[in-house]
Amino acid sequence: MKAPSGSPDWLETFTAAKRSDLWDLARTSQAFEGLWPEYNGHGNNTGRYFGALVPRYAHLQVLFCDKRSGRLAARARTIPLRWDGTLRDLPAGIDAAGLRAIDEPGTPSALCALAAEVGRDYQGQGLSSLVLKAMAVVAGTSGLAPLLARVRPSWKHRYPLIPIGRYAAWRREDGLPFDPWLRVHARLGARTMRAEPRSLQISAPVGNWETWTQMSLPDNGRYVFPDGLAPLKVSCGLGEYWEPNVWMMHDL
Q1: For position 174, what pLDDT does the model report?
Q2: Structural domains in the chain, sorted by start
Q3: Which of 204, 76, 228, 209 is nearest to 139 (CA)?
Q4: Which of 78, 55, 56, 62 minimizes the C-alpha distance to 15?
């Protein structure tokens, strides 16, 4: 596919349909391992829809390759879904969006941005904006406008007790969102649609949570934990966590 505007000349862009070998390389080289907190890889439902992306939707997955070294620099993962354009029909978070995409019949009418990932060695070079632009390109060329982004705010873990709706509404003096990742979307023209306090579900035995968080969880209650965007609820040997997200829409 054509590289998004503003791409450096050393960066090549391909869909997974065009270069399935690069999609495989992302897995075997672990190019994007460690970008997400450990607990984030254990969603109750995420395996179903993330696992369906290739080959079913290979033409909608974008890979960025450093042609100087052959290394993967970034990756965009998306999924098409049916949406009638109203807030009422907007899915209740990433789990609801992903499950709608794979379980409900009907012609998709929008593209959902699931994950925008930039390798650690390539961060701080503006590639995150290029990943979002690439998502918009594949949405437009595939007739799947608009691009819906379930945004995981990058600083929310610093304020886990603040409700996501209040956090998403925080603004800087220049009027842009307080959160850096929300701000990247806003600078590209996206508008906030709704905050979702129950977007991604992770329910697992307390022992698992103690391993993931490197914390002891000795009693029932609500716990703040490293990199958590909201508190973890522990009860009767089970840890229940709902990750909050913010829906933003890019008109194409």
Answers
A1: 97
A2: 11-196+246-250 (3.40.630.30)
A3: 76
A4: 62
DSSP of the chain, one letter per residue? -PPPTT--TTEEEEETTT-HHHHHHHHHTTTTTTSS-GGGG--TTHHHHHTTSTTTTGGG-EEEEETTTTEEEEEEEEEEE---SSTTTS-SSHHHHHHHHHHS-S---EEEEEEEEE-GGGTTSSHHHHHHHHHHHHHHHTT--SEEEEE--TTGGG-TTS-HHHHHH-B-TTSSBSSHHHHHHHHTT-EEEEEEEEEEEEEEEHHHHHHHHT----SSEEE--TT-SSPEEEETTEEEEEEEEEEEEE--
Burial letters for 171-203: b for 16+ Cβ neighbours within 10 Å, e otherwise? eeeeeebebebbbbbbeeebebebbbeebbbbe
| Side chain identity at residue 225, one-letter code | F
Preceding omega of 180 cis (within 30 degrees of 0): no
Q: What is the pLDDT of residues 93-102, one digit of tens each?
A: 999 999 999 9
Tokens describing residue 209? 């949570």
Instruction: Report pLDDT for 106.
Output: 83
- Rg of the chain over all Cα atoms, to the nearest angstrom: 18
Residue 198 to residue 39: CA distance in whole angstroms: 16
Encoded tokens for 196: 């979702």
Tokens read off for 149: 């982004």
Pairing of strands 71-81, 238-250: unpaired
How is residue 44 written in tokens?
A: 């109750």
Distance in angstroms between the alpha carbons of the first and the last residue of the chain:
17
Reply yes or no on whether the pLDDT at 129 is more than 90. Answer: yes
Residue (of 74, 76, 46) closest to 59 by Cα position: 76
